[in-house]
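Dear support,

Our group has been running a series of protein-ligand predictions, and this particular one with flavin-adenine dinucleotide is the one our PI (initials K.S.) wants archived with full inputs and outputs. We had some confusion internally about which version of the output was final, so please treat the block below as the authoritative record. The input we submitted was:
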Amino acid sequence: MERIVVLGGGVGGTLVANLVARKLKGEIRRGDASVTVVDERGEHIYQPGYMYIAMGNERPERLKRPERSLLDREVELVIGRAVEIDVATRRVVLEGGRELGYEQLILATGSRILPEEIKHFDTEAHHFYGPEAAQRLRRALDAFEGGRIVIGIAGMPYKCPPAPLEVAFLMEHELRQRGLRERSELHYCSPIGRAFTIESVSEMATPILAEKKIELHTFFNVETIDPDRKVIGSLEGEELPYDLLVLVPPHRGAQVVIDAGLAPPSGWLPTDPHTLEVKGHPGIHALGDATDLPLSKAGSTAHFEAPVVAERVAAAIKGRAPQGKHAEYDGKVMCFFEVGDGKGTLLQFDYDHPPQPPKPNRLWHLGKIVFNKTYWHTVPKGRV
Ligand SMILES: Cc1cc2nc3c(=O)[nH]c(=O)nc-3n(C[C@H](O)[C@H](O)[C@H](O)COP(=O)(O)OP(=O)(O)OC[C@H]3O[C@@H](n4cnc5c(N)ncnc54)[C@H](O)[C@@H]3O)c2cc1C
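Confirmed final output from the archive:
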């Protein structure tokens, strides 16, 4: 019996487990292999909805479902926290001591946020990378009556690279609607020399920032917060005052993969860009936020990686070469991008083709809304 253990029941882990289970019913004989998902929460969360909580049109309870309800019935779900991975003996140890042996291990443990790494973040800064934080930001926006809003990034890489720009655009729209725009300044701090990491996206976003009078500060990696002077400081030595501060918190990979010696202290797993195997560890694959690939940490990335991991794991079990269009990952990612005023655009790219975002329009905004609503029936179940 080949035991396939998937760590993490988020986008990547859930989808890959369902795709492997589908292969078990076809190519691989039942009884020859088992699929087990280990998730510490037992609850699947649709994180893109957090941004909409902050913008006032989503509720936390609508963003979660029991993980069991999304998994194929052939997949076993173990609710528990993995605290140890012993690659020598091919075992995962859970909190409480339960051990799971594996022949194939799939790491889909996502990313963690660490606001505490920046002094005074918790008391001074807002963010939208969790449900409570997003609700708190909503309350702060409701109470806002004008002043200086600063949006910045306190560490790269982070989940959903367009999200802080989207929030800037959506906030600017809200301020106009509430008649507060004239009394407010909006500042956007980018850690690099342009508005967005990918040049073509930057070329699309920069004129929109200018048109909306959102001041762009480049090479501004947020490093310090001075709560007395209400000023943030950058790694590059600049300062910027704020009345309302919104920061993307620092992110890291899961502690368990660092402790296992699979990843450096950043927690991002060294991953082959095409096979998605963890470098130097045959039989261990990674997908989603957990990898060190130079791609967006996005659900979409996990979505397009999962069929490749499923194909390669099935091939390993059958002792054949990976085959078909999912034999290797081509870096495909596809994300909707809100620009405010009920408009959006689409970022679609792969390793060889940078995105060419279409002119923002209402359709792409509606596309994002429809995608958010249909997510539960499509992505995790492998129906798109
Ligand atoms: C505000 C916001 C907006 C976003 N917008 C978009 C968007 O528009 N489009 C897009 O594509 N993506 C978006 N994303 C990003 C997207 O949500 C993530 O990239 C995606 O969830 C990553 O999937 P994953 O499977 O790698 O990790 P996750 O979905 O985070 O799942 C990881 C799972 O692993 C589990 N886990 C971790 N460690 C352990 C352990 N030791 N033991 C057991 N279980 C463990 C966790 O409980 C979790 O369930 C957004 C994210 C945020 C926060």
